[in-house]
Amino acid sequence: MKYFITAFFICSSILGIAQDKSFLNIGFETNSQWYVNDNRTGKFTAGNALRSNSYLNVNYNYDHFTMQVQFESYAPQALLNFSPNFTSSLNIATFSVNYETDKFNSTLGYFYEQFASGLIFRAYEDRQLGINNAIFGGLLHYKPTSFLSLKGFYGKQRKGFDLSKGHIYGINSIVSISEILKLKNSALSYEFSYVARYQNSVKTNPKFNKTTGAFSNAFHFNKNTFYSNIEYVYKKKDALVKFENVFDNRLFDGNALLFNTGFTYKNFSVDATFRRLENMTFYLNRNVNQNIFNDQRVNYLPSLTKQQDFSLANIYVYQSQPQLAFSPSGKSGEIGYQIDAFYKFKRGTTLGGKYGTQLALNYAIWYGLDAIYDLDNRTYTSKYLSFGAKYFSDLNLEIRKKWSKKLTTLSTFMVIYYNKELLEDNFDQINAWLFLSETSYKLTNLTSIRVKIEHLQTPNDSKNWWSASSEVYYKDISFYVSDLYNYGNTNDAEKIHYYNFGGSYSKNKSRLALNYGRQRGGLLCVGGVCRFVPRTTGYSLNFSTTF
Prior knowledge:
This protein has 3 helices and 30 strands.
């Protein structure tokens, strides 16, 4: 059936290319690595040394219809630490047919969607993290009036090239209050969402419900340069999961509160976010709770901290802590906030200089919930707006300065606290200080160079690091070389130079990149969501194109 649908898409695309109302878009991407033995990072013993993840996406649009199919290949194996569900040399991953008018939008097949901020539901794809939790089923979106939007869906979640055992369905409605009241210069809306997961299982507790529902209520407001959003989620009682074992004689509900606000005034802007999560892990299959491959997640709970581009700033990375766990220290969620502030000194002032100066400040701090745990009976009680043990904090001060038409610098100072004892069941509580510097210089209209210098200092754990990198750009070609070195480690075996060098070539909508070097083991994070990558050495090739 899948192959028939794919053939139909491709034939329809070819036949419709010449028609005025049609549009065909094809995208291809491949990411390959060849892992090699290295006397410092270790021998490669994890099966095939040559691995590749490849994606071919075809989108065909004709009038009100859009048809899509995506092929994927993981041959001879997927890249290290991708989900073991990605096992096919070539297969159809997703396909769909969409019909859209001004008031009506429907999709059959695989689709992506998000309700509100994603606290109860988000289906999306992120190839770098190995996430594709598309829903296979039906999605309907109907807008009967200018002030009302309605959505509903039903299906199963993608699990590699298979489907989950659990079912998921949901509804969403957005009411524009400002449209009803005819408010001018402001926008106010109310959003209600409901999502339910059904998974059949053997019941030992008659009070256990095989269906777990979650409700979200959100208000969104903005006026001129001021905005504010608040969302509250309640998740109904579900079974406790520990080491993939489901205990339906222990039932707990969950909840979440998210508040975000900000404004801009002249050269100054600020954004602040507060969030509280309690027992908010939500998987389509209960027994994959806290899965390290990000498989079958229903909701979206990224860490709310500054997203970093520097290597050393990503050594001590915070991941959100929404789970309930009756470990010796006890966990039931997280509570904390993040603040971003920006100020631009005007040109011609003392601090602004000829081209202006930008100042950015970010502060994030996260705690566990203030709760009392009964480890013997597997029960707990928590206080709602009270802070428990400190998990993490970081302070970032960033200065971006353009000195001339050719020279620009970026300087960042960071202070990090990382509670490794609670976050990783280790014994260290880490205080780290980082200095990060980036200098960009335009040699000619076609050539530029960028240099990064980084230093991390901490009295414990792996102690001090330094990093340096240089990139040269000429027209559509770039070259780079970098090194990351843990020079302060007391264990000589860990004093490894994580060097990398390579380059890329871009032409129109195509890009080819080649690289050789060592990868420091740890967390790779995109948008606050992370996956673990092991310490390796090898070659990598990345190619992408659209036409």
